[in-house]
Amino acid sequence: MQKKKSFYWLAAMLLIMSLFMAACSNGEDEAGAAEDDKKETEGNEGGEKAAQEGGTIVYALDAAPEGLFHWNWYGIQTDAEVLGLFDDNLITFDEELKPQPNIASWETEDNKVFTFKFQEGVKWHNGDELTVHDWVFSLETLAHPDYEGPRYTNVQTVEGAEAFRNGEADSISGLEVINDYEIKITFDKARVNNLLNLWTYPMNRKAFEGIEVADMEGSDPVRRTPIGTGPFKVNKVVSGESVELVANEDYWQGKPKLDKIIIKVVDSTAVTGALQNGDIDVVSVHPTIGKDVEAMENVDLVTAPGLSYYYVGFKLGKFDNEKKEVVEQKEKYADKKLRQAMMHSINREEWIEAFFGGYGDVVNRPVPTAHWIAADNDDLNTYPYDPEKAKEILDEAGYVDTNDDGFREDPNGDEFVVNFSHYATGNPTFESRAKALTQYWEEVGLKSTLEMIEVNQYYDMVEKDNENMEAFFGGWGYGADPDPSGLWKSDQLWNYPRWVNEESDQLLEDALDVEIVGTDEAKRKELYVKWQQIVNEELPMLFITELQEIYGMNKRVGGLTLDVSGFNSAHEWFVTE
Amino acid sequence: MLKYTLRRILGMIPMLLLISIVVFSLALSMPGDPFGGEIDPNNTDPQYIEEMREKAGLNDPVHVQYGRWISNFMQGDFGESTRYKMPVAELIGERMPNTLFLGITSLVITYILAFVMGMYAGRKPYTTADNLIGGVNYLGLAVPSYIAGVFAIYFFSFKLGWFPFSGSVDITLQNGSFEYYLSRLHHVFLPAIVLGALGTASYTQFLRNDIIESSRKDYVRTARAKGTPETKIYNKHILRNSIIPLITFLGFDIVTLISGAIITEAIFTYPGIGQLFLDSINNRDYPVMMTLTMMFSFLVLFGNMIADLLYGIVDPRIRVD
Amino acid sequence: MAEVINDTSITKIKVQKSLSPWAVARRKFLRNKLAMVSLFFLMTVSILSFLAPYITTADITRVNIGSMSLTPSSEHWFGTDKSGRDVFTRLLYGGRVSLLVGISCTLLIITFGTLIGALAGFFGGIVDALLMRFTDFILNFPLLVFVIVLNAVFFGKLGGVPVLIAVISVLGWGGVARLVRSKILSEKENEYILAAISIGSRPAKVIMKHLLPNVLSTIIVQATLTFAAMIVVESGLSYLGFGVPAETPSWGNMLAASREPDVLQNMPWIWIPPALTLVITILSINFIGEGIKDALNPKSLR
């Protein structure tokens, strides 16, 4: 129960950072573009299995949904998991997280004006046909002054959105409907990531008819009777407990093979037992119980590269949120050599095996390996576990033991202690995994302390550069948008290490600059690789691991595949008995 | 009696107000904005936060905030859960039946166990069986419920596989079917036994001692002298007299059931009020936390009052002037 | 703090030889086998716990990645937990914390409760009314609920064991105060007290010299019960994750490992030792308490 909290946080972080979280979690990855990539994740599609007509599967959530079942308002990952089953995104993402056409395809010449074309004949669950008007309705809702959700930023860049929000215009001038299936969207200026930033979830006009924008969040079409365009329809919502989905016979990609999906909340402590008994068919599994699930005879463990990474950050300065700049430098960890030595002293493979059951990989950059902008390890320092080298670097940098207490002093000869903080949620493994990290540092002669801080307070302290925060543990999630500016530019609040590097800032800006990269992906990637090399060399944070997404899946379930962008469309799922 | 009852009820009001002030100040001093659920955590723009704070009334003086909270509270508006985004009253309403079911089942178990053991021990005092019952009771009093719960799960769920170890119902069953209710009973049994065992000891001991004492009384001697069968004496005459004082325990039971429910529900991951309370603290869901804390305090007050009143009814001599 | 209801023996008192009441009590207590065994056990556990640093050399906080979740062996008597820490060593260190919390809370609760109870009982009138309203107020807070809430308020700010002790004590003294007050009230009516007051003894002196010694037996018995109850409270809170901070070993924290079904089901060596130690310790304290009660009760034989 406790353990899940960090994942809420992670989920929250995912949201915060990437405006396109939704895109990578709903996973209507239509056709398997790269089949070979998926094979290892499917232990399921063997020839011996015959799909049964109809049938029901139980899809378990290990945390209760908030019950905000519309993309425009949902807040947590759990709700997104449910949403992905009954409402389709207009565009989708491949396993490198590049956008692909789904219901809508698009064309652009200059990254400023886009023409979108909808598939004809896509039906809402209430029988209405999906048209571009539904999309306009959705975008205007987000831009409405009464909309209080966090997604206005996703239309802000459309020309005229600002004027609409301020009440100066009756419609958004950048949205130009050509006919029911075509729309031209003009952005305020050309940007590389205009498409990725744009909100691509339509809203059914009839369902929300007569509901004021301010009341929409609590309204029935969001909470009790949500509708979408996806392969399944919501039949019944039992708040905080379960959702019953039935097949959408008119699904635009074909009739679903299953009759029903029952989504049930199962406490995380009960997940193993329920999987074992066959009470639940599909569930996300925490790495620490991965091995147990793998051993079950009736269950397959499917994994896909994840999009989150864990790190140890250093506070290198202090941030002023009003001025939006780092106003003060902190000296303690300013020496790059010190940080590199600390990285070398950590046995990351051993650590991942011990605390994540091996369901994670060593990572050397702040970009998940699956992402298309990820730099190859050959281009980076890999910082292998090498305590001797760490000691050498420390000696060179002047961190030597001058008073023979067994621990190194700083170059001035003063006592040096790494004060490491980790969040506490009541999950006992957090303390031991954090403690293990400090032990690695002590082994190379750096005296270390550990403080466990209650998780809600922890992130508050990290964000506000509390004096007690020096070296801190954290995790970030990554979305489809490759742009890491929100976490790394020196004027960003979420640049937790308060790292200021002009070259880095410049590269991040260049990568978004149409003048420089245009529509040339290779050029863009080159800039990001360069940026990753700088971060990898400077190490404002020590990158520890990227976790895998793990799902436990009963062997009777077939046709279900998982990749970095999530599950395939649920209309392909079936049961064999 | 009526006057006394009224006085007790009136006396609760200042106490409740005091408690509400304590609860309110605690919520204020908690990390983060206690009533800031409406503020979107993803938006860090200081101006936006300020706007929302103003809108939510967080910039008002403390006593104004308190006044608003308590007047809403009295009207049954407990606010909205920041986590589930739904009215707290609705949320509690959803979880309440589970806890009530657990509480009532455990009380039933307590009564059955206590009557069987207490009557037996009372009829045959100072025998091996009596000592055994005494010993079991002693264990029941001394062993903390969560340890009992952990052992119960280990043996009855894992080793023997007799009972499920978590949840309130089998998730695949259709609501309302016969199997559904059977499954609920199956799920509640183990936690209810653990919770019920807490109260059994005091009931048993009381019953036993009372029966022993009664059996020496004159009316029993008279009955015996008249040749009334022993079974009838015990089951009819003595038991009737011994049961009445027992109802005074009910008030205290309300109090023990609250703390018991928090722990037991946590061990068995049983989705009731106790778990909701712990979750609300872990998730900083202040409206839920405050409402439940108030509710628990109220129940304690209420339980104590019931106990006093029942006491007065059962034994008029004790009635406080 | 449930009190076991004992049937009081109805046999009449026999006149003892001229031993002082305390000596009589001591003799009775020494003859009580169950209490003596319990005392022996409690002493052993306490001594082992407080001497833990001298008994085992294993590092209590060190995470040993190579030796996680090992079954009991000659090297690790009770095996190791999921962090590779020796369970036996943690059990000893855990005892330090659990017993320390228990004793500290008991001392604070008894001291404060006795003080309030004695003042209220002795002075009566307005003092009594005020103090008892205050006591009622405190008693109306469900202990567990408020300790959890208070802990959430203070957690991380002040941190750890002292805060826990303070919070439990502040909320826990009501029962003792009530009990002491009622005892004092009945004791106060005795003539020797009236005499002491009438010759002008100061209230402090009357309370300390005359009243308290006479209610001491009640307080001692109550203290043992409180001690057991406080150990239960500490471990229960820690089990729920609202007690002693997770990085400090305590019996409750060790038991909390069993909240992972994996540990509960497959690694009983991690949680059975603290569970059994807790149960036996609490039983022992209760037996000792019963023994003392019996020994101090002039009506009981033995």
From TrEMBL, chain A:
Leader sequence range is 1-22
Region Disordered: start-end pairs: 31-51
> What are the alphabetically sorted keywords of the record?
Signal, Transport
- Report the record's Gene Ontology biological process terms: peptide transport
| Record has Plastid as a keyword | no
Q: Kindly list the GO molecular function terms attached to this UniProt entry.
A: peptide transmembrane transporter activity
Q: Which GO terms describe its cellular component?
A: ATP-binding cassette (ABC) transporter complex; periplasmic space
UniProt lists compositionally biased (Basic and acidic residues) regions at 35-51
Q: Where does the source fall among the domains of life?
A: Bacteria
Q: Which Gene3D superfamilies match?
A: Dipeptide-binding Protein, Domain 1 (3.90.76.10), Dipeptide-binding Protein, Domain 3 (3.10.105.10), Periplasmic binding protein-like II (3.40.190.10)
Quick check: keyword Transport in the entry? yes
Solute-binding protein family domain: residues covered: 100-488
- What protein family is recorded? Belongs to the bacterial solute-binding protein 5 family.
Protein name in the entry? Peptide/nickel transport system substrate-binding protein
> From which organism does this entry originate?
Thalassobacillus cyri
TrEMBL record, chain B:
Superkingdom per UniProt: Bacteria
Keywords assigned by UniProt, alphabetized: Cell membrane, Membrane, Transmembrane, Transmembrane helix, Transport
The protein's matches in PROSITE patterns, at most eight in alphabetical order, are given as: ABC_TM1
Q: Which Gene3D superfamilies match?
A: MetI-like (1.10.3720.10)
Identify the residues that the record assigns to the ABC transmembrane type-1 domain, covering every copy. Answer: 96-307
Q: Fetch the CDD domains from UniProt.
A: TM_PBP2
Q: Name one GO biological process term.
A: transmembrane transport
Q: Can you say what this protein is called?
A: Peptide/nickel transport system permease protein
UniProt organism field: Thalassobacillus cyri
Automatic annotation (TrEMBL), chain C:
Report the main location listed first in the record. Answer: membrane
Q: Kindly state a single biological-process term from the GO annotations of this entry.
A: transmembrane transport
UniProt cross-references to InterPro entries, sorted A to Z: BP-dependent_transpt_permease, MetI-like, MetI-like_sf, Oligopeptide_permease_AppC, OppC_N
Instruction: Give compartment(s).
Output: Cell membrane
Residues annotated as coiled-coil are none
The way this protein sits in the membrane is described as: Multi-pass membrane protein
* Keywords, comma-separated and alphabetical: Cell membrane, Membrane, Transmembrane, Transmembrane helix, Transport
NCBIfam families of this UniProt entry?
Answer: Opp4C (NF045476)
Which family does the UniProt entry place this protein in?
A: Belongs to the binding-protein-dependent transport system permease family.
Protein name in UniProt: Peptide/nickel transport system permease protein
Species of provenance: Thalassobacillus cyri
